[in-house]
């Protein structure tokens, strides 16, 4: 086994002086008080005459760990000594005295058992009830929160500054919050916009009233006229020709438009005495009757008399109690009744 480490002897070596006081040689080995140590293990005190400073002695339990001793044979680890117990005896401080057990604890339990008094019951001091901390005051939100982007807008702003969403309808503008410069500008702009909107509404209302009056006058004028002509060109649905303004006719009852020639021919060729609108297509056929005043403006007097005669013949043939005059070429007829036995025909004087 290697010899213990050596170090150079200094002018004052307390470890070396301590070993000399106990009459121990530096190279001698000292066994552990609980077991026999090997003869070649010492305190690691360096011998004199070395070439340099070497580490000092190690505790026994560290040496036993290095040699592989079991834990139960190593002994308790050495603790560090307090500063006042280190160094030579003349430099150490006074030892700290420990209090005896009789002087520990409360006053009534100190001293010998026969001199101790009865233990006093500990009474906890009365503590004042702890009041709960009041909740923090609610922070008043100034402005309205946008329902889309949750941005807090100023109270008097009509729309969101971020997403332009409308202000909630149920939001009430607080009256105790003063108006800042931006809100004043917004309110002034809104007031100006409202004034312009009111002016626009008044102008539109006057315009509608004027147009309504003009339309009423045009309706009265058209009612006085027997025939309503077209004001713009169109294509006749019968002859498919382009009809210039004023050359066509607009019927009153159905507002269908035809050229005058086609409408006149339709009147003269109508199989019925009651002339109907000639409009007809693949999906719809108009049955609106033509007024007599429109027919008078389209046909001549002779043609109108023929229409009257046609109507009389249809009425005579349709009636069950009709009677025609027996005179040759007489067009008169009558409707006989039980109480009437004679009929006077004005056309023949009989």
TrEMBL record:
<dbReference type="InterPro" id="IPR036443">
    <property type="entry name" value="Znf_RanBP2_sf"/>
</dbReference>
<protein>
    <recommendedName>
        <fullName>RanBP-type and C3HC4-type zinc finger-containing protein 1</fullName>
        <ecNumber>2.3.2.31</ecNumber>
    </recommendedName>
</protein>
<keyword id="KW-0175">Coiled coil</keyword>
<dbReference type="GO" id="GO:0061630">
    <property type="term" value="F:ubiquitin protein ligase activity"/>
</dbReference>
<dbReference type="Pfam" id="PF00097">
    <property type="entry name" value="zf-C3HC4"/>
</dbReference>
<keyword id="KW-0808">Transferase</keyword>
<keyword id="KW-0862">Zinc</keyword>
<dbReference type="InterPro" id="IPR001841">
    <property type="entry name" value="Znf_RING"/>
</dbReference>
<dbReference type="InterPro" id="IPR051628">
    <property type="entry name" value="LUBAC_E3_Ligases"/>
</dbReference>
<keyword id="KW-0479">Metal-binding</keyword>
<dbReference type="InterPro" id="IPR047559">
    <property type="entry name" value="HOIL1_RBR_mRING-HC-C3HC3D"/>
</dbReference>
<dbReference type="GO" id="GO:0008270">
    <property type="term" value="F:zinc ion binding"/>
</dbReference>
<dbReference type="GO" id="GO:0071797">
    <property type="term" value="C:LUBAC complex"/>
</dbReference>
<dbReference type="InterPro" id="IPR044066">
    <property type="entry name" value="TRIAD_supradom"/>
</dbReference>
<dbReference type="InterPro" id="IPR018957">
    <property type="entry name" value="Znf_C3HC4_RING-type"/>
</dbReference>
<keyword id="KW-0833">Ubl conjugation pathway</keyword>
<feature type="coiled-coil region">
    <location>
        <begin position="193"/>
        <end position="233"/>
    </location>
</feature>
<dbReference type="GO" id="GO:0043130">
    <property type="term" value="F:ubiquitin binding"/>
</dbReference>
<feature type="domain" description="RING-type">
    <location>
        <begin position="236"/>
        <end position="278"/>
    </location>
</feature>
<feature type="region of interest" description="Disordered">
    <location>
        <begin position="21"/>
        <end position="138"/>
    </location>
</feature>
<dbReference type="InterPro" id="IPR017907">
    <property type="entry name" value="Znf_RING_CS"/>
</dbReference>
<dbReference type="GO" id="GO:0097039">
    <property type="term" value="P:protein linear polyubiquitination"/>
</dbReference>
<dbReference type="GO" id="GO:0043161">
    <property type="term" value="P:proteasome-mediated ubiquitin-dependent protein catabolic process"/>
</dbReference>
<comment type="pathway">
    <text>Protein modification; protein ubiquitination.</text>
</comment>
<dbReference type="InterPro" id="IPR013083">
    <property type="entry name" value="Znf_RING/FYVE/PHD"/>
</dbReference>
<keyword id="KW-0677">Repeat</keyword>
<feature type="domain" description="RING-type">
    <location>
        <begin position="232"/>
        <end position="350"/>
    </location>
</feature>
<keyword id="KW-0863">Zinc-finger</keyword>
<feature type="compositionally biased region" description="Basic and acidic residues">
    <location>
        <begin position="99"/>
        <end position="113"/>
    </location>
</feature>
<comment type="similarity">
    <text>Belongs to the RBR family.</text>
</comment>
<feature type="domain" description="RanBP2-type">
    <location>
        <begin position="140"/>
        <end position="169"/>
    </location>
</feature>
<dbReference type="Pfam" id="PF00641">
    <property type="entry name" value="Zn_ribbon_RanBP"/>
</dbReference>
<dbReference type="InterPro" id="IPR001876">
    <property type="entry name" value="Znf_RanBP2"/>
</dbReference>
């Amino acid at each position: 086994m290697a010899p213990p480490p050596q170090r150079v002897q200094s002018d004052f070596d307390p470890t070396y002086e301590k070993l000399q006081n106990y009459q121990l040689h530096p190279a001698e080995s000292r066994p552990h008080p609980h077991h026999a140590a090997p003869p070649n293990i010492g305190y690691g005190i360096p011998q004199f005459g070395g070439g340099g400073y070497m580490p000092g002695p190690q505790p026994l339990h560290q040496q036993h760990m290095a040699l592989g001793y079991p834990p139960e044979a190593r002994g308790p680890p050495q603790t560090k000594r307090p500063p006042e117990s280190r160094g030579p005896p003349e430099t150490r401080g006074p030892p700290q005295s420990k209090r005896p057990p009789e002087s520990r604890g409360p006053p009534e339990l100190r001293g010998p058992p026969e001199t101790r008094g009865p233990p006093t019951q500990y009474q906890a001091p009365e503590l004042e009830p702890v009041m709960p901390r009041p909740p923090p005051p609610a922070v008043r939100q100034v402005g309205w929160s946008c329902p889309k982007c949750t941005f807090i807008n100023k109270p008097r702003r009509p729309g969101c500054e971020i997403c332009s969403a409308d202000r909630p309808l149920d939001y009430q503008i607080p009256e105790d919050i003063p108006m800042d410069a931006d809100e004043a500008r917004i309110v002034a702009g809104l007031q100006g916009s409202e004034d312009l909107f009111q002016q626009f509404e008044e102008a539109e209302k006057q315009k509608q009233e004027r147009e309504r009056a003009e339309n009423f006058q045009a309706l009265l004028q058209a009612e006085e006229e027997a025939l309503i002509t077209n004001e713009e060109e169109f294509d006749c649905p019968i002859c498919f020709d382009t009809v210039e303004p004023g050359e066509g006719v607009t019927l009153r009852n159905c507002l269908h438009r035809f050229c005058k020639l086609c409408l006149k021919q339709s009147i003269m060729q109508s199989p019925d005495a009651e002339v109907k609108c000639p409009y007809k297509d693949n999906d719809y056929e108009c049955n609106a009757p033509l007024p007599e005043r429109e027919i008078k403006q389209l046909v001549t007097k002779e043609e109108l008399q023929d229409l009257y005669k046609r109507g009389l013949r249809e009425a005579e043939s349709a009636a069950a109690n009709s009677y025609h005059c027996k005179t040759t070429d007489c067009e008169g007829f009558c409707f006989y009744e039980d109480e009437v036995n004679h009929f006077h025909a004005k056309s023949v004087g009989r």
